Structures are given as C-alpha cells and as structure tokens.
Amino acid sequence: MPVCLAPGMGLNAYFAYQVVGYHGSGLISYNLALTAVFIEGFIFIFLSLIGMRQWLIRIIPVSLKIAAACGIGLFLAEIGLSSSAGIGVISGATSTPLEVSGCPDQYKDPVTGFCLSHKMTSPTMWLGVMCGGIITAYLMTYKVKSAMIVGILLVSIISWPRGTAVTYFPHTEQGDDRWNFFKKVVNFHPINHTLNILDWNIAAAGGQFALALFTFLYVDIIDCTATLYSMARFSGVVDPDTGDFPRSTVAYCTDAFCISVGALLGTSPVTAFIESGAGIAEGGKTGLTAMTCGICFIISMFFAPIFASIPPWATGCTLVLVGCLMMRQIVTINWRYIGDAVPAFVTVMFIPFGYSAAYGLIAGLMVYTALNGMIYLTKLVTGGYIVPDDEDHREFWTIKPHGRLPWFITAGQALADRLSHGRNKNQNDNTSIRSGESSWKYQDRLNSKASNRELDTVAVHALPTDPSQEKVLRKM
C-alpha cells in the first residue's frame, strides 16, 4: 500500500508528557515506556493474524468509515492552515478557540504565538498561498504529475536566500541557527542513547505499566486501523462487497511490526501517517510509493540540513489540497437517515477539532451506538408501532459482517485440500498397481473373446458358389 509509517503525533505528547513526564516525573520511566510500546506491537500482530482488526473495520458502519476519511481530510487542512506546521492563516486565541492569523513574526506574542496585530499581512503566508496553493492547484487541473512537489520546491527555493521578506533564515538568533545548520548540507546524528534500551523490570511499575500499555493499545488500534482503511479507500482499492482491501492482514501486521521496531530505536508508537494521502493524490497505488518514501527518508538522514530547512508555509497548502481531495467522498454518506447522518457528522467534526483521528472515530461510534440503540429499544417496546419516518433509508448493519477469512486461515485450508488431494491420488495409484495382474488377465480374456467372436463370424459366412472362389478358399 502507498502508506508511510512514522511516530504518531498524538501519542507523542501522551508518551512524553504523561507516561514519561518532564525529566522522568511521569508514571513510568522512559525505558519501561519503550517496553510497553514493544509489547504492544506484538499484541497488534496477534490481533491482525486472528482477523480482529479486519473484523473491526467491517463492523464499523459504512457512513462512519467514510466520515473518518473525510474527517482526516479536514484534519490535514487544519494542519496546513495552522501556524506551527502550515501557512499560518489560523492560530489560537484568548477569547475564541481559533481566529484568523497571518501576521509577521514581530507582531506575534512571544509566549503564546497569537497574533497581536497586522493580521493577514505576512509575506510568507501569501507566498505559500500563491505559489504553494494556487500554482499547485493550477498544475493539478491539467493532471501534471508531481504538481505538489513542484509547489513545495518553488516556495522553498524562494524562501532560502537571506535578506528577503520571505526568508526562512532572518537575521535573528533563531534564523542564524537555522542558517548555520543549513550550510552543513550533509550531517548525520548517530543513535547513542536510545538504541535497544528496553527495561524488562515490569513488576516494579505494576499497574502503571499496564495502564500505559492499554492506553497505547486502544488508541493505536483505532487510529492505525482507521487511517489505513481511509488511505485504502482514498486510493480506490477497497472491495465494496467485503469492505476490506487486498492483503489487509499483511498490511496490518507490517504496521504492528514497525511499532516494535520503533521501540527498539527509542521512538513512541509508530502509526500510519495521514500525510500518505499526498502520495496517493499524486497517483501512488502500490507499495512502491511507500518504498520510495522510505528511500527518501534514508537519504534525508544524511541531508538533514536541507530537508529540515523546508519552511512550513511551503507544505501547508499541499496539505489543504490533499484534504480537499479526501473530502470529495462526503457525498456518499447516508444523509437521508438521521441515525446515520448525525454520527457521521460528529466523526467528521470531532477529528479536526479534537486533533485526533482515533478520538473522532470513537466519538462517532459512541453517538451511533447511543442513538440507534434508543431507536431499537423504542421499536422493541412498542412492538414495531413507533418507528422513524425515514427508516426505509437506514443503512443495513449487522454484528456479523460478511467478508474474507484471514489470509493464514485460507492458506491453511488450501494446503490441507492440496495434501488431501495428493493422498487420494496416491491411494488410487497404489490400487491400480496392486490390481495390475488382474487387469492383464482381464484384458487377455477380452482379447480371446474377441478372437472367438471373429472366428464365429467367419464360420457363419456362406460358402462361395463361384468355382473359382471355391478353389482360392481351398488353397487358403
């Protein structure tokens, strides 16, 4: 699949500030937290092999699955518009949750980063909008491949020279640090303190370790599964009959295995990144896209100064455009039945506002269960007399969804059938060999009978009446 994996941003904060804590003041130590992540990965592999994650995707109502993909699209757009990772059009505020931003750095609050004045006057914001947004969308209109990469490179090249209004390296302390790092071009930071430092003294933490492990598990199983399904749906490979995508078990197991590998390297839980939609939007359909991205990340380890110097306003509008593409499927949500429409809307709304795909889907599932559970109880108590007016438009849902069995079960069944067929064939061959002598005797008997029939046929022929023919017959 064209999906990239990296440490999840939501669990990063939980891992760092709640589980480990500032300078190790959290629930458990950093080493024990990595052990919890390592164990979580193998639990994921087990759940994937028995088909639990596939069943979870099939049991989620169709409207909620579509809503999750649309919510992720809005989430990407929100990130692209933010000040920390985008063009800086929106930011936090004191009186409202969000407000219009887009002011130059000198007019921002040094502590909160909120705009104090001169909103929508930032040159970098307008550079990102025009070159990274409008030009990229113009190229996408004509189906130009790598249109998004062209937009990112164009904005980056314009932002690298110093002494301009849109430079990424202003003559400040922070700008000088960025410039000095950028001039190194090639640089590599070795792994000295985070490689394979797991702590297996689990008994010392007790319930705190179990709490951290369970939290990682349930957040990841929703987040990873929903993201993988959304990316598969965005790329158009989801089977409409089974609700699954090809080789899903292998994809889920790979995702789970990378969680454990990431723990050995010292990272928080690895998850499927929603930014993979950018590669899918450029035409990526197979794992070659993911492999190409991985190779680029390996290269970036040695050219970190260059890749780290790509400004956020160069990539912000790209995320907005990807979000636009992912939102196109919102029309397929069942808006005709309120029991499907309201949970779907809650999912779409909560993912960007809650800044988490997992919590957004959980919110939608809770609303779906509560609302449709009350409707079912009302129908049951009244004997089917009171039903919603638009019940005829309700999507079909069952606790036993149809679909394919996990790949290892079907592979085992195929192997068993092959062995059984081979055993039956060997038995038939042995029976033929043991009965070979009888077959020969039976064939000889048939041949002798055939000869007798030929003799009998000759014997019953009438004698010739022509004297010449009679002489020939006597000579014979």
Automatic annotation (TrEMBL):
One of its GO terms (molecular function) is purine nucleobase transmembrane transporter activity. One of its GO terms (cellular component) is plasma membrane. Residues 420-440 are annotated as: Disordered. It is found in: Membrane. The chain crosses the membrane at residues 27-50, 62-81, 124-142, 149-169, 250-274, 286-307, 319-338, 344-371. Residues 425-440 have a biased composition (Polar residues). It holds the Pfam family Xan_ur_permease. Keywords: Membrane, Transmembrane, Transmembrane helix, Transport. It is a multi-pass membrane protein. It comes from the Eukaryota. GO terms for biological process: adenine transport; guanine transport. The keyword rRNA-binding does not apply. Belongs to the nucleobase:cation symporter-2 (NCS2) (TC 2.A.40) family. Azg-like subfamily. This is Purine transporter. It comes from Neocucurbitaria cava. The lineage of its organism: Eukaryota, Fungi, Dikarya, Ascomycota, Pezizomycotina.
